[in-house]
Amino acid sequence: MSQTVLVTGASSGIGQVIAQLLTERGFTVYGTSRKPTGTLVPLDVRSDDSVRACLDRVGKIDVLVNNAGYTLMGSAEETSIEEAKGQLETNFFGVVRMVNAVLPAMRKAGAGKIINVGSLAGITAIPFGAFYTASKFALEGYSEALWHELRPLGINVTLIEPGFVHTPIGEKTQIAAKPLSAYDGVRQRATAALGRHVEHGIVPEKVAATVLRAVQSRSPSLRYRVGTDAAWLPRLKSVLPWPLFAVGVRRTFAV
């Protein structure tokens, strides 16, 4: 029987490609979006009511792919508490909300897969992306703890960790609303550098292929790193002295 997959944030980029690939491979896929068009299902991961309405419409879910999120750029100081909360509400608590919503049925079935799309930013910080980074670091710890808790119940948890990916997320990056002039030069360089790396990043199809691998696996790994930068940067961070590793990060982001 075809498994049912729910993909959040499927209107463009990685989520859209994941939904397309899984559909092509015979899965019953429900892609979701805050502003749905076509066959997309309405879902705002920040709203309990929206999550309940979505699951009532879709029914039983065998695989949940948490992909919804956005990037917020700005120095930590010039980012308001409200902006920081908004970033965490979508990128982190949105995942928590979705997981909590699907777990009762998965526990009853004694089976299920939860796939969280993280980021290289969950392993090493992006300058001027403190709260995006914080959301992805939080997702790392949450997913790892969840893996331990759900494994005895027959439910798999997987974290996808892509490096830079060439998607429209760079075009949709939000900037802190009240910039401080002291940061102007370095912020502009860091934001421009991030844009260049995204422009030359891997294609989202590589991320989708990794998600498919996890979905099809009988015993998927906790972590899958996608892209050369995602593979070697964590290794460098683990072996290099911090001052030397930090030089590399500062050069990468022109800070």
Write the H/E string, N to C: EHEEHEEHHEHEEHHEHH
Instruction: Report on the biggest sheet.
Output: 7 strands, parallel
CATH architecture: 3-Layer(aba) Sandwich
Number of domains: 1
Shape descriptor reads: globular
Quickly give the structural class.
Answer: alpha/beta
Number of strands: 9
Describe the fold and architecture:
The chain has about 260 residues and is of the alpha/beta class. It has a single domain, classed as Rossmann fold, CATH 3.40.50.720. About 50% of the residues lie in helices and about 15% in strands. The protein is built from 9 helices and 9 strands. Strands 3-2-1-4-6-7-9 form a 7-stranded parallel β-sheet, with helices on both faces. A two-stranded parallel ribbon has the order 5-8. Helix 1 packs across helix 7, helix 2 runs parallel beside helix 4 and helix 3 runs parallel beside helix 5. The longest helix is centred in the middle third of the chain and has 21 residues. The protein starts with a strand and ends with a helix.
